[in-house]
TrEMBL record:
Its EC number is 7.6.2.1. It comes from Malurus cyaneus samueli. Belongs to the cation transport ATPase (P-type) (TC 3.A.3) family. Type IV subfamily. ATP binds at D405, K406, T407, E684, F726, K750, R794, T874, G875, D876, R985, K991, N1014, D1015. This is Phospholipid-transporting ATPase. The lineage of its organism: Eukaryota, Metazoa, Chordata, Craniata, Vertebrata. Its main location: endoplasmic reticulum. The chain crosses the membrane at residues 66-85, 91-107, 289-310, 330-357, 1069-1088, 1100-1121, 1145-1172, 1178-1197, 1209-1230, 1255-1277. Residues 1037-1281 form the P-type ATPase C-terminal domain.
Amino acid sequence: CNRGKVRKRKKKNENKRVIISNLPFGSKKWKENPNRYYDSNEIKTTKYTILTFLPKNIYEQFHRLANIYFVFIALLNFVPVVNAFQPEVSVIPICVIMAMTAIKDAWEDFRRYKLDKEINHMGCYIYSREEHAYVEKCWKDVRVGDFVQLQCNEIIPADILLLHSSDQNGICHLETANLDGETNLKQRRVVMGFSSQNTLFEPEFFQNTIICEMPNNDLNKFKGYMEQPNNERVGFNIESLLLRGCTIRNTEAAAGIVIYAGHETKAMLNNSGPRYKRSRIERRMNRDIFLCVGLLFVMCLVGAVGHGIWTGKFWEHPPYDVPDENGNFASPVLAGFYMFLAMIILLQILIPISLYVSIELVKLGQVFLIHNDIDLYDEEADLPIQCRALNITEDLGQIQYIFSDKTGTLTENKMVFRRCTIDGIEFSHQENAKRLETHKELDLDDEDFAKLQLLTLPPMTLERAAPFGHSTVRPLRRCQSARARFQGHTRSRSVGRRDSSQSQVAFSSSIEKDVAPDSRLLRRVREAALQTESLSPTHTKTSTSLTDFFLALAICNTVLVSTATEPRQRVTIPPPIKPSGITLEKIHQIFQRLKLASLSQSFSSSQSSSDLGASFSAKNTEEPLAGLESCDNDNDNDSGGRGQELQDKGSTDIGSTSLDEVFKSVTNSSLPAAFCYEAESPDEAALVYAAQAYSFTLVSRTPEQVTVQLPQGTLLTFHILYTLGFDSVRKRMSVVVRHPLTNEIVVYTKGADSVIMDLLDDSAKGDISAEKRLKRIKEKTQKHLDYYARDGLRTLCIAKKVLSEDDFQKWANFRREAEAAIDNREELLMETAQHLETKLTLLGATGIEDRLQDGVPDTIVALREAGIQIWVLTGDKQETAVNIAYSCKLLNQRDTVFTINTENRETCESLLNLTLEEVRKNYEFDKPRRKFFGIIPTSCSASEAPSPEFGLVVDGRTLNIIFQGGLEEKFLALTRLCRSVLCCRSTPLQKSMVVKLVRRQLKVMTLSIGDGANDVSMIQAADVGIGISGQEGMQAVMASDFAISRFKHLKKLLLVHGHWCYARLAKMVIYFFYKNVCYVNLLFWYQFFCGFSGSTMIDYWQMIFFNLFFTSVPPLLFGVLDKDVSAETLLGLPELYKNGQNSEIYNLSTFIITMLDAFYQSLICFFVPYLMYKDSDIEVFSFGNPINTISLLTILLHQALEMKTWRTVFTGVFKVHFCLAFYLIFSLIYNSACVLCNPPSSPYWIMERQLTDPIFYLLCLITPAIALLPRFFILALRGTFGASLVLKAQQVEKLPKGQQDLEIQKLRSRKEAPSAVSHRHTENQGLSASEGNPLRRRTPEEGFCFFNRWAEEESAATDSSVGPLSGHHPLVPIRETAPGQDGGKLTKDYPNSFNCGSHRRSVSSVTL
């Protein structure tokens, strides 16, 4: 009956998945289980099976048109009328070529099979009804409807709905490194109704039916409901789904039911599978083979027609014309057709069959050299470069677009606290900056670490550092991670691939944890603590700000606390602490006193705005932030002048002495061990470690409360009332707590400065002095933020708000209603959050540095100089991606950045049109000016961004609109005019769709690079896919064509090896076409003198060996070892890469020119000996032998002209001499031994007689010189007049080392001249502020006038209610608009004063 209900329900929910437990069915009743139709968990990423390998591989190899041609020729040899020479021999070459390619493809697929087998046989625990316990089975045995138990540090085998967690709050923590490369933790919650169980979860009692959506590739969305036996329904979403490939962290045990398995899991659906990649040169070869086949057809047709005409002139049949068995002779037409087939056999080597074998061998040699390049070896990780695809090495030299992931690819995902500003006073943390400059990422010994602390920390901090474990506890090594022990059974196996038990704790390296405090700020914190101790009313306002600032850093987050000894064991109970000299009652009095003082006392600013502005505008400072330090020193001195000085010598000594005594007492009541903090984002971890550096230590956290240790040593436990998480619309997070001492309800908020600044409360309830003070603090903080942004730091503003009980109760009721709502729930929750986060009090701001990988900015600059356009496709939030783009020089401060976020197609289309129109106008406006200066480039490759002044930022929702609304062409037209493009919040599928769109529509060469499983589709969609190895997740590496350990290795891989591989292979391919056409034409010219009979003047074995041995070695050595330019020059002059980008070596024009040259050389090689031996009685082979020798010598000397590494004896002289010597030795032996070969003609003793003939030597001397003279003349002209950049680089390399560097700098300066003038022109328009004060006032004439007009047009078009916009400052856009609120329209505010109203990077950003 139950199964019948399931079937009926399944029909009603055809677009939904219905899942029940597998336990009632067992193995005997499996056929009755409705879950049996769902995929198993076994995965298969191979392309072939044993049965399908041959047909499928042959089909793929026939994508090479030459293979079809060679098979046709081999079959044609067996036609009797063709009278082919030993037809069996012609089958061997094509069989060998296809067999070698098949073996290579089979080996690559076998490696995929081994990885699949390894994954499928990983172990997990599945509940067994027979044994009433969880038993270990392989991943491939997991089925939809099974119950799976997971332990800490175990990789999740399938998509599982979470039904039980060992955490008392029903929370399970995940690490998604295998999916996105991020080691931070994400939270998942048990389905409602299951988290309250006090006993262990019993699968046998589970009788619910699960209805959820069908399998899809959206990693961020999942919804469904669970129907209980009483028909009650419980909903769930993505927060309850454990995704395959993630790792359980910080949770002893979890259990759930499998929803999706195998290829239906979200991770696998985002993997589009491997595709057969063919290089661009191979595709061009297909086109040129078509041309060669056409040429062959024409030559055979000429032979057939000529033969028909020749035989038609005879009145009687000639003696060599043999009749058939009936005595009938073939008609001239039929004889011509037979001759057409015979000519195909004769001239078949026009298509070089040996080319494909040679290409495979050359690519193997190139891969070997790349793999053994010491510069591409990562010593720290002990990882060399991996070349996983052997057939696309030359594509590395033709890349035009690079699509890069951000986290783990460009960055190390390490956030380091650098600077902060509190109450308008900036603290530069110079000690921390010095530490970061000298820091090396090592596992330091205790002694070494103590030495480092002595070198970096100021003297005051040494006594403080001990209690909090910075110098007494050894830093946590990356490989340390405690394995959770689960009661009931012990797992002896290594759970997870790559030994996940040794996973690092996210954001726990010493470079992130060990913040060196700023000496001035530390002194102020200690003075605040001293004033608190003595209950002094002096400076209570500053004390409150300092305390609130660091409390906000410590508690306004979702950071989990664990200890260094057990870094994955969550701390939920504050550790016992010895009582200090300051009692809780005394602290309570302190906070009450501070509260009263903050209400009764107004505190005026200690420095005027003009002084601050003057200190900012220090001219030509090496460090733009240096002015901030002098500014705050002046601030201190001015404070002293007003009678409020605490920094004079006497008071400092007194304060220090008493503080030392206080902190000594705190030392005795120190915490038992250092803490590890595990955060959802690296920013949160960095801020918590910064608070810890100033003795505001986060001790424990639960969903209900959070405990912080103050500098005095007292533990404060705040009750958490609500947590409003971060989202990309609000761009902030807040935590509502009840203060344990004042009993106030306080809202601590942190978020992007662009939104926090607009939420501040500027009024002070009629207190004019306090209002002025707030305004002054806001202005100073904004200036600090602008300088932080210019220095590439990620900025966050910290604010607070105190709520009354009545206001909080009203808001809490509103919030509960929103949480209980079914319709528009997300919008209501957003509204409640925005209602709470208003009228905030600014506490300060922080500047955090996202640690880029070494060499990333230099690599990006070099790649851009090489003409490569770089896009960043990331799932990270928009602000983070933009910050990284500035840090790694993907975007420049002088760039105008357009940000388009919308969910409406019409709005998106109009924004794209407006943006495109204005960008084109600006580009056209620049054109005449650039021509006037005479620096406009003569040619522009397809990959060059025409205008370097614009950047584009779009989010995932906008990408959906673009793809679904048919706006791809407009989007691409805009991106081609932009310097860089950032796609944020994009799904793995969107990443691959973007890559495919650019590759197919623009017909450009693309490269994708990433490190996580979410990058697999993007990597496989590009022409070249590169995986970053060394991370915990290896899916990207397994799907890639090349694997490197660092992004900086991309520079040499592309600029050096890519250039070499392309240049070598392109020259080799075109050389093969040349030599075969040149050689075949000799046979064709001879047909005019033999009645088009299809006979030859060269022995057949000599013809076979010509391609097989005589001319095969030089191209192979040339293709592997030749270097047209040295590696140092290629790295020093990245513009040389454009040679391959634009396919300057191998294209249609060079192919045609080479074919014409081949025809000319064949004419010379044939007719010079013909004229020399004319009217003589020389026999056929005696005439053909000199022609064969001369043509071989000419072809080898032609190769020598193209070769650049003549300095190497092995690759230069040896090639030509070896082939000539081998040819002569073979000919002498063959001609002396072959007495009865090819009757009636015989090659016997021909070479021996030729070597005694002076005419032979004369021909060998004169003919190659005449044949190669035009090519040599053209090469000389190219080197003298209009030399390309490659030729100039080759000439520079002949100079002494010192002069080489000087000439390279001159060449680079010439190439950079256009961009330099462009930047100067941009600065004149007010786009850049790299020199002088960037915050000076600008007149309308200095700005882009079209911004104002554009804003008016768009505002009029989208919202007629918006008033006219001010034209005073047409450059300054203010804020992003929430897509849901304003429909994506462009909004701009132009404040009365630029100094007051500018937000971070508002100088150069325009938000749509």
